[in-house]
Amino acid sequence: MPETPDGLRTVCWDLPHDLSMVGKARRIVVDTLNAWDLRDLVDDVVLAVDELLANAVTHGEPPIRLSLWAVPGEFCVRVTDHGPGRPRHLDLGLDALHGRGLAIVAALAHDHGITPLADRHGKTVWARWRHEIQNAGDTSGDSSPGHKDPRRR
Cross-referenced CDD domains, in alphabetical order (predicted)? Predict the structure, then answer.
């Protein structure tokens, strides 16, 4: 995957409007994050992608596009669909089976939001993570799987 001189890396996929593609999309996100040496983000990003794509397929309309981009210190995932509705945070009871997707994304990402498409029905739902830029040989901090530095939020 090519990188620009300023460190921008980006990739996107047009996906079928089918829930069965969510598992395949998770795998390509893992592969991309590993290739970009962003392994510390894998668990949170994959869960957020799962929620965003499931919402796009369930409540949106095709075409659906998954985009990933990274610059030094920042990573963003975007899911675009062309349905007229907008996702919203719901006030749910403890026994609710559905409707927690945006709350999960908000808990995982440093920032998230919804951007309406300017020229037609649809929206892009996005989530962004900040991360430390690792230098070769840097052993500071805990980089164990699942460790989340509370200062990052």
Answer: HATPase_RsbW-like
Handedness of CA 119, 112, 102, 26 (dihedral sign): positive
Distance CA 40, CA 96 (A): 31
**CB count in 10 Å sphere of residue 103:** 14
Q: What's residue 140's pLDDT?
A: 45
Q: pLDDT tens for residues 68-110? A: 999 999 999 999 999 987 766 656 655 545 556 788 899 999 9
Cβ proximity of 37 and 134 under 8 Å: yes
Q: How far is CA 85 from the centre of its chain?
A: 20
Residue position matching structure tokens 């709350």: 103
